[in-house]
Structure formats: C-alpha cells, structure tokens
Write a structure and sequence with these properties.
Helix content: 40-55%
Radius of gyration: 18 Å
Strand order of the largest sheet: 1-2-3-4-5-6-7-11
Structural class: alpha/beta
Low-confidence stretches: none
Shape: globular
Length: about 260
C-alpha cells in the first residue's frame, strides 16, 4: 500500500513544532510515508521548499488538488492539470465551486466545468478525480450527489473520502462498494463524536450534531473494512482541522496503524 499525506497538514504541524519540512517529512517517511499530496496553492507558494523536500527525502508527488471557482476562474483546471504534468504526477483532484448565486442551475454549471476538466486531463494524460464533499451546501455531499457527476461524466474518477459521508450519516462502506469501480485512490479520514484536543475543529452535519477529526484507525469510520476490499488502492492520510500541536504525531499514528492493520 502506498501511503501519502497532505502537504498542508504536515506543514501545519511542522510550523507549530518549529521543525523544517524536510525534518518533518523525513520523520514520517521513516514511519512509512511514501508520498505527498499537494495543493496547487502550496505548489505556487512553496515550490523551492517542495522541491528540496522531494529531493532530500525521496518521497514522490502522489497527486495535486485544488478548489476551482467556475465563476471567477472557469479555466482554472488547466493550471492544475498543467502543474501535474510538470511535477511528476498523473492525477488531480478538483473541488468545483461557484461563488455566484446559481440556486437553480448550480449542479449543471459544476457538471459542465468538471466535464471540461476531464476532457483536458485526458488530452494531457492526467486522471481527474472528484470526492464526496463534507459541506452542507455542496451538491455532492452524499452518495446521490456524487453519483450525478460520476455517472454523467465519462472518464471522471473518484478519490473516495472515507470520512465525508457523515454529512447525511450514510454508510461509507456501502458507498465504497457502490463507487468501487470508479475509485482510483482514497483520502483516509477518520471521525470521532468528541474532540481529542480543545482546538480540534468539528464539522456540523445535517442533523445539527458535530463530528471531529482524529488519527486514522482511532475513530468510528469503517476504514479497516474498506481497506479489506480496496485491493491496495493508494491512500492519503488526511487530518484537516486536527490540533496543530498534535498534527505530526496524528499523521505518524495514522501511518503506523495503516502499516499493521
């Protein structure tokens, strides 16, 4: 199993702990990390640092990700896909949004934007993915919502997020089975009903209750059951909203759990 982590999560922990990114990634590599999942914003802001980390640690770029506002930057997917081509990875995750008011046709605009991204990705040899989104105002925060995109856009793949079907308390294992033929990689995100630390940030779900981030393997998400049928898909540990003070240790714990599960 190839185990990666979000560059942004690692950087949050490294800044809090006062260590360099090379030191942080080296520690995680020695625990079993093999790749970095990097946002387009990070790539533009920290490119010299990222290149130094890759060279000094030997980890690879597992993929790139970006939020694309189809109102203000409708061709933004091109920059993301071109960046993937130029930085040694073959896949991108697009989170399509619209900043304007499109109550009546939001999904149609998003579908058209993602379809254009997939077509451009295919022309450049890059796989384009979407995930289930953990936002109450997202039209793809459920099995049915995500299925609108995966069923209607040929060539679109799913980067399955284990922890995001909490928004409507859907069964993530059944969701994985439903989308399995279109899943190319996974974000491993675990959830807890109570915070581990005072500064963990919770996510309000549809019934008004809150769910919190936690290291992979320590919460209630059925991650082991999903991994048992995932056939070795590459995985990315995700800990957004987790305590910055404990971020690096949380990523390390997640990697350790994945190596023994």
């Amino acid at each position: 199993m190839k185990i990666s982590a979000f560059y942004e999560n690692i950087r949050t922990g490294a800044e809090f702990c006062g260590v360099t990114m090379t030191e942080a990634v080296t520690m995680l590599r020695d625990s079993g990390l093999t790749g970095l999942y990097i946002s387009l914003d990070s790539l533009k802001a920290f490119l010299p640092e990222i290149r130094a980390v890759l060279e000094n640690t030997g980890v690879f770029v597992a993929g790139l990700h970006a939020w694309i506002d189809l109102d203000t930057n409708p061709d933004g997917y091109r920059e993301l896909i071109d960046a993937a081509c130029n930085n040694g990875t073959d896949n991108v995750l697009i989170v399509p949004t619209c900043s304007g008011n499109h109550d009546n046709n939001l999904t149609e605009i998003l579908l058209a934007g993602v379809k254009a991204a997939v077509e451009y990705g295919e022309s450049r040899g890059i796989t384009v993915c979407m995930e289930d989104m953990d936002r109450l105002n997202s039209p793809y925060n459920s099995v049915a919502g995500l299925d609108q995109f995966l069923s209607n856009i040929p060539g679109l793949f799913c980067c399955f997020d284990t922890g995001n079907f909490i928004m409507h308390q859907e069964d993530e294992l059944e969701a994985f089975r439903y989308f399995q033929s279109k899943i190319s990689m996974m974000h491993l995100k675990d959830r807890a009903k109570e915070p581990e630390h005072p500064d963990d940030v919770g996510r309000i779900i549809a019934d008004g209750t809150v769910r919190y981030p936690c290291p992979v393997g320590s919460g209630f998400i059925q991650i082991k059951q999903i991994l048992d049928i995932a056939n070795g898909l590459p995985v990315i540990v995700e800990l957004y909203d987790y305590s910055p003070e404990h971020m690096l240790e949380g990523i390390r714990k997640s990697i350790k759990w994945l190596n023994i599960v």
